[in-house]
User: Fold L,D-TPase catalytic domain-containing protein from Phyllobacterium phragmitis.
Amino acid sequence: MKLKNALLASLMASALLAGCQGSSLDDLSPKAEKPLPQKIVAKMKAKGMTTTSPVMVRIFKEEGALEVWKRKDNGRYDIIASYDICKWSGKLGPKFIEGDRQAPEGFYTVRPGQMNPKSSYYLAFNIGFPNAYDRVNGRSGQHLMVHGACSSSGCYSMTDDQVAQIYAFARDAFRGGQRAFQIQAFPFRMTAANMARYRNDPNYPFWTMLKEGYDLFEITKVPPKVDVCEKRYVFNNTAIGEEGIAPDAACPPIGQPDALRMSYMSYQKTFETAFSAARKKSSKPTPAPSIAGLAEAKLVSAWSAARARGEKVSREPPSLTPASTEKPNAPDIDPIMTAKTRAPAAGQPAMPAQAAPQPIAAPVPQETPVGLSVAPAAVPVPQPNPELRAANGVAPETVQPEAASAKKPWWKAFGR
Assistant:
């Protein structure tokens, strides 16, 4: 019984340790040999790339994106594919300790030995956590992968079809002679707006350090040379040789080429201007909705409900248009009904209070010769236009639309 329990505990410990690592077998499998789709191959050719040219990967947590970049004939890199990350663990920020289920952030290196063609998560490759920066800063963890199966415990998980293509990009690049490719894992795209949004986050100093490498790639479109000294990342320091330097040693004087340094300074100047504007914008309080805005929203909501019930309403949603812009002479206004509620204009005869007006006989002129009769001229019933309203003592601006119909429109409940 004790032996059985010990064996069970050993198996459980192995499962926890494995995390996202999958199988450790190195032999090839048919799924690891799937070629890239012809559509992608044609796209590479159009961009001046070959199937075996070097690759680089960028990961953005907040945007949930994994990008594959390849080197063109001119030596610069260009994006060739972008994939939606199916799942990633934890939250924005770096991984600190094994078991925190946090996906790493930083600059990592993948070599052929880190590729796993027989992963239990379809296909996988180890991103290389912990790197020199992580180790010198006391961060721990292992078996952090990009893999398939859409399941993550600290890894970046893709669908099987997605990881098959990502794996193929790396496989072909290694067969073309690339000895290692770089993975840049960021919390988000490091734009001025995003940096301003997260300026008060505890991880902000760490992210500003990553941003230098991000910016250098944006400027040059070449993966930066990454080293660690003084327990921090340094980029494109030509004073550090290929053998590197101790991660906790003092950094040698910066040896960046003058042209790159000037380009970086110009880039930063533009960034600082945009960052300052974004910071001011994010600091402004959001104005409370106005009473008119709430009333209009209520009006539109009622219009939508009426339309959903099949009632006859206007095609466009209503709005609280200022009275000065409304048309005073609506075609459905009855001027006679309106005239009954108004006093006659100066010098005009009063209208009958109850009956509709009858044709009025024109007065016979005094000069009419005896023996001739003049038929009374009928005066037509006034029509709804400004001139006839004026003739009947009705001022257009005083028309009361409420008297036009006894039926209460649906929007009257909102006080319009």
In short: The chain has a mean pLDDT of 78.
